[in-house]
Amino acid sequence: MLIAGVGNLLLKDEGLGIHVVRELNKMELPEDVEVRDCGTMGLELLNLFSEYDKVIVIDAIRGGGEPGEVYKFSLDEVKLKKGRRLLSMHHLDLNTLLELGREIGVLPSEVVIIGAEPGEIELEIGLSKEVREKLPLILKLVMEELSKV
Predict the structure, then answer these.
(1) How far is CA 120 from the centre of its chain?
(2) Helices (H), the chain
(3) Which of 10, 11, 73, 88 has the fewest CB neighbours in a 10 Å radius?
(4) Which residues pair with 114 in a beta bridge?
(5) How confident is the model at residue 99, as a pLDDT?
(6) 131: buried, middle or exposed (CB in 10 Å: 19+, 13-18, 0-12)?
(7) Distance (Å, rounded) from C-alpha 133 to C-alpha 129?
(8) What is the Cα–Cα distance from 33 to 126, expressed in whole angstroms?
C-alpha cells in the first residue's frame, strides 16, 4: 500500500499532503505501507500508483466547503470530469491525473483520497489555522484506512 502526499509546500494549504506525510513518517506504520512525499509530481504518479494494490492520496481538495473541511472518498465515489484537456505535463490537477489513469487502466484496484478544503493558497510555508487544526482528524482517517487491510 502507498500513502502519497501531494502538493506544494511553498503555497500554504496546497502543501497539506506533504505536511501529513511528514507526520506519518514520525509514526510506526505496518511494514507493507510506503509513505511518499510526491510533491508536485505529474504523470510520474501514474507509474508509481500502478505498482500498488491500494493507494491513499492526501491532498488539498477544493470541494466548495469551508476552509478546513475534511473530505474522504474513494475513486468510485468521485465523479471525474470528462473532456478536460492536459495543459501541462508537469502540473496536472489530481482530477485530470485520476481520469487519465482510469482511462488507460493503470490505477490500483483501490484509491482513497483524503484531504481538506484549503483556506489560504499563497506564497508562504505552513498551513492556515483552519487546516492545521484538522491534521489530527486527517491522520485518524489515514490510520482507519490502514486498519482495513
Answers:
(1) 17
(2) 16-24, 44-49, 94-104, 129-132, 135-147
(3) 88
(4) 58, 72
(5) 83
(6) buried
(7) 6
(8) 26
Place of cell 510506526: 28
**Cα–Cα distance for residue pair 60/48, rounded to 1 Å:** 20
**pLDDT at residue 149 in the model:** 67
Residues 82, 88, 94, CA angle at the centre, nearest 5°? 50
Q: How far apart are CA 141 and CA 20, in angstroms?
A: 11
| C-alpha distance from residue 79 to each of 12, 38, 97 (Å) | 27, 23, 13
Q: Domain 2-147 is classified in which CATH homologous superfamily?
A: HybD-like (3.40.50.1450)
Cβ partners under 8 Å of residue 3, min gap 6:
21, 24, 33, 34, 35, 36, 55, 56, 58, 142
- Per-residue confidence (pLDDT) for residue 75, from 0 to 100: 82
Question: Distance between alpha carbon 105 and the CA centroid of its chain, in Å?
Answer: 19
Q: What is the mean pLDDT of each run of 10 residues along the chain (149 residues)?
A: 94 95 96 94 90 95 92 78 39 77 90 94 95 98 92
- Record the cell numbers describing residue 111, joined without a space: 484509491
The predicted pLDDT at position 50 comes to: 94
